[in-house]
Predict the structure.
Amino acid sequence: MVLQWASTISLLILHKANADSRTYQFTTMKYLILLFGILLTSCGNNKGASKSDSMMMDVNVSSFFSQDSFPGVESNLRNTRVYKCDFTVNTKVPFEIVEFLVDSIKLPVPSLTLNGEILKNEHIQIAGDSAHVIFQANRMFFNAEAKNQIYNVETYQLSGLRLPELNGKMVIRVDGQLQTVDLGDYVKKASVFHP
């Protein structure tokens, strides 16, 4: 609507400018450029938009890594990749961790440690000053051609996002609404090979 209005005014100004001198055209073009600059700036700023609750929380990641673990027994499980994140959070608004996003998939977070207590992640509400949280998510890689089909093959839902390499996010629920919190980049630790 605003852009249609601006383009109509610019056409009227240019039509008038064509009828008058070059000086008038130059002055008109300066004002036209200024008008478009103001419109673009005002369209880009959403000062009226409210801050999301995740922006009101202060997340400080102290440790974030992944590590591959290879089993010593031949089976259809090629390796397990463990993602572990240790962070403190300051928030007045309670939230719960729903899942972990990495690459382009969603990983479940079945349990977590909250202020030193290991808890099954069933709608655990996290809030307060300096809440200490550690969570772990596992991703299993399978070999479909292995002779020993010991493990059930797990599949993971796509997240709809393609995250940068070595980057992870957690999905949280705040007041019934899902939000994404960027945890930053993780360190890839050396693989562990079991005998």
Notes: Residues 39-54 have pLDDT under 50 and may be disordered.
